Amino acid sequence: MTNKVMEANNVMDLFRTAASTGVSSNPKMLNATADLTNLSSDIAKEVLKVIEANSELKPLVAESIKSHDAMDQLIDRCFDLGSIDVNFLLFEDDDTLDKMIRSQQSKRSRSKGKLMTMENYRTMLIGAIAENLLRIATNKPKSTSGSQSGSAEVELTEEMLAELMEDPDALRRAIRNVQSKKSIAKSKADFDENSPRWQSLLEVEATLKSLRDNGGGYTVKAIEANQKIEELLDGTNVDNMKGAEAKAMLEAIKDMLASK
C-alpha cells in the first residue's frame, strides 16, 4: 500500500468508533422526502468515495464536522449537484418545500451535536446534500435574500407523465400544485406573464390537464363499449355457441369497437 493511499484512508480516523444509534424516522414524512433521502444517500456514497481517495481533503473534512458551510464546500468539491434532475421536487407546493428545507437543516444540526461516528457523519452529509438539492430546486441559495424564490422552471419528463397517467390521484395533486404555484406567482409584486417561470407553469398545466382529460375520455369510451358488449351478449348462451356463431359474434363486437 502506498503512502498516499495510507494517508487517504487516515481521513476516516477523524470519526469515533462508538456504536451507531441509528437514525430515527419521522412518521410525518412530507411528500417526496423518501425519494429525496434515497437520492441524497446515493450521492453521499459517491462523496465518501472521493473523500477516501483524496488525502488533501482531510482538513476540509475535519472542518465539515464542525461547520455546515464547510460541509457544503466539501460537497461542492466532491460532486456536481447541479447535474442532478430535481424536477420531481417541483411538484410539491412552496410551503411543503420550505418545510422540507427546515427539516433537513434540523437533521444536520442534530447530527452535528452528537458523537461524531462515521454513521452520524453520513447522516449529516445526507441532510446537507438533501438541503442543497432543495435549494437548487427552489432557487433559494444561502447567499441570497430569497428574492428569486420560486423562479426555477418546471418541466415534465416522459417518466413523470407515465407515472401520472397510471395514478389519477397523483395527477390531480400535480394539477392543484401547479395552480397553487400560479396563484403565488401572480400575487407577487414583480409578476411578469412573459417570464420563463410563468410560461413554464402554463405549459405544464396544459399538459397535465390534457393528460387528465384524455384519460377521462378514454375511460368514458371504455365504459360505453363495455355496456354495448353486455347488451349484445344479453340472453346469449356463449357456452353452447357453435364455431360459426361465435365467429359471427366476435365479428360483431369487432365492428362495434371499430366504430367508436
Quick recap of the structure?
By secondary structure, the protein is mostly helical. 65% of the residues lie in helices and 0% in strands. Helix 4 (68-78) crosses helix 6 (118-138) and helix 7 crosses helix 8 (168-187).
* Discrete helix count: 10
What fraction strand? under 5%
Q: Report the sheet with the most strands, covering strand number, pairing sense and barrel closure.
A: none
Alpha carbon gyration radius: 27 Å
The rough form would be described as: elongated
Mean pLDDT reading: 75
Number of strand segments: 0
Structural class: mainly alpha
Number of folding domains? 2
Query: Kindly, what is the distance between the CA atoms of the first and last residues, rounded to a whole number of angstroms?
Result: 73 Å
**Helix share of residues?**
55-70%
H/E element string? HHHHHHHHHH
Low-confidence parts, pLDDT < 50 over ≥5 residues?
4-8, 17-29, 143-151, 216-221
